[in-house]
Design brief:
14 strands; binds N-carbamoyl-L-aspartate; five-stranded antiparallel beta sheet; 14 helices; 370 residues; single chain
Length: 370
């Protein structure tokens, strides 16, 4: 393990950085979009490694094209079971240790929660979280922030609807955490009872005193709230215990042209994609539908992120900042610490009404003593 105080400019959770730093990155991305030629040689001689343990089109390819457009090169795998030694049983620590020695930055997507932080603990270069299970997806959030900033001119004072799988949707989690750091944003959470936003994401909303509502119908959301943006999401099939549970939740929310007629005239429709059924294809022709443009913004913001990461402009804090405690154990079966048992057990403390509550630093689930 690296010295846990070693500072490699990782991006695990956007909230490691200040709102001013996000705004700087958004400005840089907008400049890159306007003047791409100025940046085309900025990463000559640099290598980005992509380690994708879960399927991806946009995140993986936008990162690759971002690095190529900066003049750098890329290596990596997208299917570890066929083109890496993960198929032979190699653990995340060893793969990260070796790949990070070949690269200037590693981009990791993993099916387990907390995997990006776990990789960062052992990496010899900065690690960027490209999605860790149902936990977080900070670079999708940067994409969403850039889309909102460029299209509405502001990231504050917005009424934001989020619809679909709020429980398992990592894009939703990261986006809510980020938007709640800007002033006067209001959240309308549209989901079934079983797919509500998890407590650990509701906590920051409560702590910041953000106004939010939980609603079970899109029509009600349109009627009761003047939404500036609707963020549609896919029901995350791969996170369900079985197919029946998934089917009981599938197709509950479908945005079609009929519903769009009732939606606010200026409401932007975003979606991290891939779409399954939750937005009818006919909606694509509505000028409020921005999801394809959003995917394109993703490449520019990732160019800005790569540049700032490689140039060490982000001033990161230590990798693990919690208490190392052997008497506590994370009980979340989807947490990386359950699979990679060598990891230092690190917990963050928060003071609750009935005493101290500890949260696993990797997946953020609350834990009990053993
Ligand atoms: C999202 C993801 O992987 O979490 N996709 C993406 O990165 N644009 C959303 C999803 O898979 O539903």
């Amino acid at each position: 393990m690296n010295e846990i105080y070693e500072n490699y400019n990782h991006l695990i959770d956007l909230n490691q950085y200040s709102v001013e730093q996000w705004d700087d990155m958004l400005r840089l991305a907008a400049d890159i979009k306007r003047n791409p030629r100025i940046y085309e040689n900025s990463c000559i001689g640099k290598i980005m490694g992509t380690m994708f343990y879960e399927p991806s089109t946009r995140t993986q390819m936008s990162f690759q094209s971002a690095m190529l457009r900066l003049g750098g090169g890329t290596i990596g795998f997208v299917n570890p079971q066929t083109n890496s030694s993960v198929a032979k049983g190699e653990n995340l620590k060893d793969t990260t240790k070796v790949v990070s020695g070949y690269c200037d930055v590693v981009v990791l997507r993993h099916n387990l929660e907390g995997a990006a932080l776990a990789a960062a603990v052992n990496a010899d270069c900065p690690v960027i979280n490209a999605g860790d299970g149902g936990h977080l997806h900070p670079t999708q959030t940067l994409t969403d922030l850039m889309t909102l900033k460029e299209e509405t001119g502001s990231l504050s004072g917005l009424t934001v609807g989020l619809c679909g799988d709020l429980k398992n949707g990592r894009t939703v989690h990261s986006l809510i955490k980020a938007l709640s750091c800007y002033k006067n944003n209001k959240f309308v959470l549209i989901s079934t009872e079983s797919l509500r936003l998890p407590d650990y994401i509701q906590e920051p909303l409560k702590a910041k005193g953000a106004e939010y509502y939980e609603i079970s119908s899109l029509e009600d959301a349109f009627e009761e709230h003047a939404l500036d943006m609707l963020y549609m999401t896919r029901i995350q099939r791969e996170r369900f215990e079985n197919v029946w549970e998934y089917r009981s939740q599938a197709d509950k929310f479908i945005l079609d042209t009929e519903k769009m007629k009732k939606a606010p005239e200026k409401m932007l429709v975003l979606h991290p994609l891939p779409r399954v059924n939750e937005i009818a294809i006919e909606v694509d022709d509505d000028p409020r539908a921005l999801y394809f443009k959003q995917a394109n913004y993703g490449m520019y913001i990732r160019m800005a992120l790569i540049l700032q990461t490689i140039n060490y402009e982000l001033n990161n804090s230590p990798v693990l900042i919690g208490e190392l405690r052997d008497d506590l154990e994370c009980r979340n079966m989807k947490c990386i610490t359950r699979a990679e048992t060598y990891l230092p057990k690190s917990f963050k403390k928060s003071v609750g009404e009935s005493g101290d509550i500890y949260f696993c630093e990797y997946c953020e689930e609350s834990v009990v003593g053993i």
